[in-house]
Amino acid sequence: MSDAIEDTAGDRLSPFERIKRTNAANNEYWESRDLAEVLEYTQYRNFEAVIGKAKLACFNSGHRIEDHFADVSKMIEIGKGGRREIKVILLSRYACYLVIQNADPNKAIVAHGQTYFAIQTRRRELEDEGIEDERRVMLREEIRQHNVQLAGAAKDAGVIEPLDYAIFQNHGYMGLYGGLKQEDIHQRKGLKKSQKILDHMGSTELAANLFRATQAEEKLRRDEVQGKDAANRTHRQVGAKVRQTIRELGGTMPEDLPVAESIKKIETKQQKQFGRAETPAIEKDE
Predict the structure, then answer these.
(1) What is the tally of structural domains in the chain?
(2) Cα(223)–Cα(201) distance, rounded to whole angstroms?
(3) Is residue 39 part of a domain?
């Protein structure tokens, strides 16, 4: 960790911004002793009790404590060339927000901190939402393109009629979603029949389905699969393999991932923002 407090410009900068630090990966953090000083806790042991409450709040909100509170040791100068080891907790922005919420509300600086971290935390959430939207749009477009290629590979294997292709797609879903067909996924996620599953997936779920589609196409072509039944088995096997990988990595099963806002709304918003005309996509989808 870098010990250099971030440079500031001007006296108007928030005291909480002045003590913000960044590590070698440019990730921001705050040291608990710096924060205690700004919040006017003269006895650090009293501030440790506040941190304890913040950790409990973090746990109760479903977050991993170790992701936001990191216990470290550091050496400090104590005069006459002596040095002493002290315990410090490195805090994320969210951890600081929880600490402030549990600090002494009678202190004016605490009220200022509550406002600062509430605004900054929400700003970061909005930034993260924007990144997620961009990822979803990118992945959705890639799936559009790869579904066309997958349809071509399936056709070469003998999946010709639209009904046969729908069955072929269902086998891929059944492999990835633990036996669930398209209509089962719709029902499980509370989607209407007219809503496309792929349009309501977050980036994690879209990425899993993109991997399924690309690997199924490659395997169909590489193994020169022939016949509708063989193509269906291949697609299901690939989906099941992706599911197994997710399980081995400790990920959430795709059917348990939350439903996202329709990607059509995000695309429309982006088109208005950048003044782009919508170009209809030709695709074999779902």
Answers:
(1) 2
(2) 30
(3) yes
- pLDDT digits 0-9 by tens, 100-159: 999 988 888 988 888 888 777 777 766 666 778 888 888 888 999 999 999 999 999 999
Domain membership of residue 252 as a residue range: 131-274
CA distance 212 to 175: 9
Question: How many Å apart are CA 39 and CA 109, to the nearest integer?
Answer: 6
Tell me whether residue 211 is in a domain: yes
- Give the side-chain half-sphere CA count within 13 A for 65: 12
Residues 6 or more apart in contact with residue 222 via CB below 8 angstroms: none
Pairing mode, strands 21-22 and 82-91: unpaired
Identify the H or E element spanning 161.
none
- E strand or H helix at 201: none
Q: Tokens 């879209």 belong to which residue?
A: 206
CB-based contact 237:175 (threshold 8 Å): yes
Assigned domain for 28 exists: yes
User: What span, in angstroms and rounded, lies between the C-alpha atoms of 188 and 257?
Assistant: 11
